[in-house]
Amino acid sequence: MSTVCRIGVKYIAEKMDEQQQRLDQALTASVQANPKAGMQGQPLPYQLRSDAFVTGIILICFVLFSYSLKNGKKYVLQRIKALFQYKERFSLFDDATTSSNRYVFTLTIISCVLSGLYIYEYISETDFMLIRSVSNGLMLGIYIGMSLFYISFKWAAYQFVNWIFFDKERNNYWIQTYFDLVSGISFLLFPVMLLIIYFNLGIQTSKVLIVFLLLFAKILLFYKSIRNFFKHVYGFLHFILYFCALEIIPLILFWKGITYINNILILKI
What we know:
The protein is mainly alpha-helical. 81% of the residues lie in helices and 0% in strands.
C-alpha cells in the first residue's frame, strides 16, 4: 500500500513540474516584445522651433542686432535714409566713407543667415525626402554659405562691370548702396522669420512676404541704378541689359544652384 502511495505522489509531483514549466514558458512568451504587435505610432512632424540649432542661430542674430543698434544706431539710420535719397555730387567726407562699415557688415551677415534659414524652412516643408536623409546642420550650413556666396558674387560682378563702364565715384556709391540695402532688409526679414518659426506662419503666407521683400529690394535697386548710372533717356536700353545681367540672372542661377545641390545630397546620401 505504501509503495502504491509513493508512486502516486511521484506521479503528481512530475505533473505539477510539467504544469509549472508550461506556465513559465507562457509567461516568458507574453513578456517578450513583439515588434509587429500593437499600433504603430505617428511620428511628429519636424518643426523649426523645436530645433536647438535653429534657436541658437536666432539668438545669435538677436545679439548681433542688439550690438549694431546699440553702438551704431545713428550710422545705420543714416545709411537706410540714404537709400531713398539721391545726391547729384559725391563727397569724400560723407558718413559712408568716414564711418566704420562694421555695422553694415554685421547686418549683411544677418541678412545672409536669415536668408539661408528661410531657404532651409522652405525646403523642409516641400522636400520631405531631403529633410529625412540629410542632417539639419549640414543643410542649414550649405544654404547660409550659398547666401554668402551670392552676395560676394554680386559684389565682384558689380566691381568688374562698373569698373569698365563707369567712373570710380559712381562705382563706390553703388557698392555702398547695395550693401546698405542688403543690411536694411535684415530689419524686415528678422520679424518675418520669427513669425515663421515661432508662430506657425503658413508656407504660402511666408512665401508671399518673402517675395514682397524681394520685389521691394529689386524695385529700390531699379530706382537707384537709374538715378546713379542712367539719368538720360538714351541710356535706358543699356540699363535694361545691365539690370537683367546683374540682378535677374544671378538670382535665377542662385536658385538653380540650390536645386542642384539638393539633388546631389539626395543621390549621395
